[in-house]
Write a structure and sequence with these properties.
Number of strands: 5
Strand order of the largest sheet: 1-2-3-5-4
Order of helices and strands: HHHEHEEHEEH
Number of helices: 6
Oligomer: single chain
Shape: elongated
Largest sheet: 5 strands, mixed
Distance between the termini: 53 Å
Radius of gyration: 27 Å
Helix content: 55-70%
């Protein structure tokens, strides 16, 4: 009888130990998933950076060739002028100006991480013949984590491209402004059909056609909260408009102190 009582008394201890062990395993599993997600994000970011570097190197080589050719161009133009061959000179200028003003998808704001993701996404839109009216007013260094910028810009531009593709026409308007303390982004695009919302007012996406802006908006809002900012969304008159405001310096100091959760 005594032996049975001792064994019975040890049952709660065994259960407690089991719960503690299960809790530790669950915590470690969560950390492993988080590390795996971070690795995937870093891999994608490095992919963008490598591609951006290759494009910059290509432009640099192109400029070097153009510099060497300019002397010969000047000699030819002077010959046209001296001989009065103005029609040939005009044709020559038309060809050259068309070459110099050829559209380029490479973005250069001085912030490598942001430039890489913007270059990649604008190139994707260009391949699908979707026009992007991009206004860039970036002043100096952007004190926002490159990974956060990549997720912010990537999600919003992807959503805009999907919406324009579904609508079959229209263009995307993208504006980015900074003043050293704040980062402002606005992206606008047309959409077709009815946008669905859930009971909490969030935007839904139908995976069958990946329609509209349901994907990634939750992540955009989390990034805004991280930087003490705001997200304002308007979807009236078949025009989807997203405004994002992030505060850079305070959030940059907070990131140095502790990892955001």
């Amino acid at each position: 009888m005594k032996e049975w009582n001792v064994g019975y008394a040890l049952i709660p201890v065994s259960l407690s130990a089991s719960f503690l062990l299960a809790g530790k395993l669950y915590h470690k599993t969560g950390r492993c998933r988080q590390l795996a997600a971070n690795c995937r994000r870093l891999h994608q970011q490095n992919k963008y950076l490598r591609k951006y570097r290759r494009e910059l190197e290509g432009q640099h080589r192109q400029l070097c060739v153009m510099r060497h050719e300019m002397a010969n161009e000047y000699i030819l133009e002077m010959e046209y002028l001296e001989r009065g061959l103005y029609s040939q000179l005009e044709e020559h200028y038309r060809k050259r100006t068309g070459y110099f003003h050829k559209k380029s998808c490479v973005v250069d704001t001085g912030n490598v991480g942001m430039d890489a993701i913007l270059t990649n996404k604008l190139e994707e839109a260009d391949k699908e013949r979707i026009k992007v009216d991009f206004e860039n007013q970036v002043m100096g260094k952007v004190f926002i984590d490159d990974g956060d910028l990549g997720r912010l810009l990537g999600n919003l531009i992807n959503n805009a491209i999907e919406a324009v593709r579904h609508a079959g026409e229209g263009e995307i308007r993208l504006q980015i402004r900074t003043d050293g303390t704040a980062f402002f982004l606005e992206i606008t695009n047309p959409y077709k059909g009815v946008i669905k919302k859930n009971k909490k007012g969030g935007y839904e996406t139908r995976k069958a056609d990946r329609q509209f802006h349901g994907l990634g908006l939750g992540q955009v809002k989390r990034i805004a909260r991280k930087y003490g900012g705001t997200v304002v969304i308007n979807d009236e008159n078949n025009c989807f408009d997203v405004k994002v405001l992030l505060y850079m310096r305070d959030s940059f100091c907070r990131q140095k102190k502790a990892m955001y959760k």
